[in-house]
Specification:
By secondary structure, this protein is α+β, with helices and mostly antiparallel strands. It is 18% helix and 31% strand. It has eleven helices and 39 strands. It has an eight-stranded mixed β-sheet, sandwiched between helices. Strands 3, 4, 5, 6 and 7 form a five-stranded antiparallel β-sheet that branches. Strands 8-9-10-11 form a four-stranded antiparallel β-sheet, with no helix packed on it. β36, α7 and β37 form a beta-alpha-beta unit. It is globular, with a radius of gyration of 26 Å. 48% of the residues are buried.
Length: 710
């Protein structure tokens, strides 16, 4: 590491400011802030010593860490602010972002509710309207929660008759939230605020109370980084203090994640319990019989199961047991154990997700990462395929039993998100709200290609760009990936990506293994000792783009967040010459210690842990980004994280940045930006979104030597 604090960059930047000169990359040679090394910190894994000299950065409560964050942000901010066109990019992005945005409406009691953002509000406002009401009224405005927009509304749930509601707020983007109960008629709070809720909403039982899940608040160390490994399901009775809430499930068995909700007919409490991000137990309790025991439907966590719906005869259950792409079974109310399950909708070659809607079941399938939707009755009979507006992503096929219509959203890389209304009986669809973003999809093209990975596996990728651009290898290109936890990357529209596209750039998204685009088998091919497949798939995508002259190394950037941050970190440490620019965001970068923070141990299904076996340790150690930084040149790298990220703690990014800055031998900048009053990503204010995206595009274009047209 350059083990001194050099004021050179400050002098250069100040000179540029004073003279009006536009700084160039060569003039902005960076000397990084001093990061103290503690060479005494070492762990032994199966006889192998592993040094961890920057472990002190794991302490997010220390003054030394706070000072390090401050100094890193100062260097990063000065660099970004000197990029000549950074402000012009931000202004352009703000103009694109500044359009009216709506959510799909939903009905509660006598009202129809919907979210609306006038354009640049920090958070969307929840409105409601009766059928004969001319103008909607504001029901809940999150913009009043905080002056700077860093406190957000995370979710809201109504009682069955719509007269009561709970809403949760997140401060600074934290997963730890507060829950407030209100009377829907006058919007006034009822009772105390429910504190320290994590990974849970509320599910009402009549108007007397509701179920919710949470962890015990960490007693020692950091509130944000402390381990949370015992989720419990509680019942809160209105008018009583939170301290008297009853534990319904999780007191006698220890589970890392527990979710409980009341069926629409208010008869059943349905409980899902799991130790990891895949595979769950399933339980039910008959709420019409006070004191009735909790019945276990599924006792092993080898597969994924969830209850779609329940009526007087059956539980309708989605399962991937013996059906990696998913199927629907029915379980009789009287004896719903697995031995009595019967298949209602058979498994297909495509991946299934199912929703109840107006007394029907809507089955959405992914065909090469594109949505198909089919409507079935409760006997399993196919009623119709729902005609969608095109090839893209359709979501929201849910409605209560008595409802006659539902609303869904549709988007693609070229189609701004639009809301459609579906008549459930006829299947007729009509446009409800069309986006007003200033974008003409006819000027662009989005094409799906298939390429071959290192081991011969065929991988799909969607490539989007302006029509007529020259394929000469000189187009700025952003390659985005994830590859984990069975998460599917399906086409979506982003006003931010328009900055790239309208400047002749290319946006490419491959559906690499570890995701869920082709079912559980696809997921399994990218976990634990097969994780290298994920990185190989992504690197092969980059090579395809280069071989076909979409771009070249000098014009390629790679990006991913969370597990995708791990993807980017692994790729640049395995092949630093893969790209010109890298964006590892809120990444899992220390694979030997990730499970020691927050609920990280729950990710072991995908990753394994360094302590479970010598084989697993050696595999993780071989690709862990933090532990594979060598003394060599790396791409221009902008690491991003946030001080309130209590899912993937910022220590991952802190230690990775310190190590990169120590060992980087090239002239490209290796910087870290630590957002304050923000978390893993959700709940950011419009200002934070605009600033972060402007930084990204400015950093990318500047380091590629590309001047945008603004």
């Amino acid at each position: 590491m350059k083990s001194w604090i050099c004021p050179l960059i400050c002098i250069i930047l100040a000179a540029c400011q004073d003279t009006g000169k536009q700084a160039t990359l060569s003039e902005m040679e960076i000397q990084y802030p001093l990061t103290r090394k503690d060479t005494t910190v070492q762990d032994i894994y199966f006889g192998t010593p592993v040094n961890d000299p920057y472990r002190w950065l794991e302490d997010d409560t220390s003054a030394e860490t706070a000072d390090w964050v401050k100094r890193q942000n100062e260097v990063t901010r000065k660099f970004l602010d000197q990029i000549p066109f950074r402000q012009a990019i931000r202004q352009r992005y703000e103009s694109l972002y500044n359009h009216e945005k709506y959510s799909a409406p939903f009905r509660e009691g006598e009202y129809t509710y919907f979210f609306r953002n006038s354009g640049l509000q920090n958070h969307s406002v929840l409105y409601r309207q009766k059928t004969n009401q001319v103008e909607p009224e504001v029901f809940l405005d999150p913009n009043g929660f905080s002056k700077d927009g860093t406190t957000s509304l995370s979710n809201i749930q109504f009682s069955k008759d719509g007269s009561l509601a709970t809403y949760s707020i997140s401060e600074g983007g934290s997963d730890w939230q507060k829950m407030i109960v209100i009377n829907a008629a006058d919007k006034k709070q009822i009772g105390d605020t429910i504190q320290d809720i994590k990974f849970s909403g509320a599910s009402w039982l009549g108007n007397d109370g509701f179920f919710y899940s949470t962890y015990e608040r960490p007693r020692d160390g950091s509130y944000l980084a402390g381990m949370t490994d015992r989720h419990q399901l509680f019942y809160h009775k209105l008018g009583t203090p939170q301290s008297s809430d009853q534990v319904v499930f999780g007191d006698k068995v220890k589970r890392r994640y527990i979710g409980g909700y009341v069926s629409e007919n208010q008869r059943w409490l349905i409980i899902s319990a799991t130790e990891s991000t895949y595979g769950n137990e399933l339980y039910v309790r008959d709420l019409q019989k006070p004191g009735s025991p909790i019945k276990q439907l599924v006792s092993e966590m080898k597969n994924q199961h969830y209850v779609i719906d329940v009526d007087d005869r059956y539980f309708y259950i989605h399962t991937d047991e013996n059906a990696p792409n998913g199927k629907i079974v029915v379980a009789p109310i009287e004896d719903p154990g697995q031995k009595n399950w019967k298949t209602l909708v058979e498994e297909k070659p495509e991946v299934l997700t199912a929703f109840p809607g107006g007394g029907y079941i809507f089955c959405t399938y992914l065909k090469d990462a594109v949505t198909r939707v089919y409507q079935h009755d409760t006997s399993g009979k196919l009623i119709r395929e729902i005609e969608l507006p095109g090839l893209g992503t359709a979501t929201g096929f849910y409605a209560k039993k008595e409802e006659k219509e539902l609303y869904y959203t549709f988007a693609s890389y070229l189609n701004p998100t639009a809301i459609y209304k579906l008549d459930i009986a006829s299947g007729k669809t009509e446009i409800y709200k069309q986006s007003k973003v200033a974008f003409d999809p006819n000027d662009y093209t989005s094409t799906q290609v298939f390429y071959t990975s290192k081991d011969g596996t065929r991988i799909p990728m969607i490539i989007t760009h302006k029509k007529g651009i020259k394929m000469d290898g000189k187009n700025p290109c952003l390659l985005y990936g994830y590859g984990g936890f069975s998460v599917s990357l399906t086409p979506w529209f982003s006003t931010s990506t328009m900055i790239l596209l309208e400047n002749g750039g290319i946006y490419a998204v491959p559906n690499i293994r570890g995701g869920g685009e082709y079912g559980e088998d696809w997921h399994q091919q990218g976990i634990k000792t097969k994780k290298q497949n994920v990185f190989d798939d992504f690197m092969a995508a980059a090579q395809y783009l280069k071989d076909n002259k979409y771009t070249s190394t000098e014009y390629l950037a790679i990006e991913g967040g969370s597990n995708g941050g791990l993807l980017v970190g692994a790729c640049i440490t395995q092949d630093p010459g893969m790209c010109k620019v890298a964006f590892p965001a809120v990444g899992v970068l220390d694979m030997l210690r990730y499970h020691k923070f927050t609920a990280g141990a729950g990710w072991a299904y995908d990753y394994g842990t360094s302590e479970e076996s010598k084989e697993m340790f050696e595999y993780l150690y071989k690709y862990s980004p933090l532990h594979n930084v060598r003394e060599q040149a790396y791409p221009a790298t902008l690491i991003t994280t946030a001080d309130h990220d209590d899912r993937v703690v910022p220590a991952h990014s802190f230690k990775f940045a310190a190590t990169l800055q120590e060992k980087h031998k090239g002239s490209s900048p290796v910087l870290i930006s630590i957002e304050t009053k923000a978390g893993h990503g959700a709940g950011k204010s419009t200002r934070q979104i605009l600033d972060q995206q402007a930084d990204k595009w400015a950093f990318m274009f500047f380091n590629m030597g590309v001047k945008p047209k603004y």
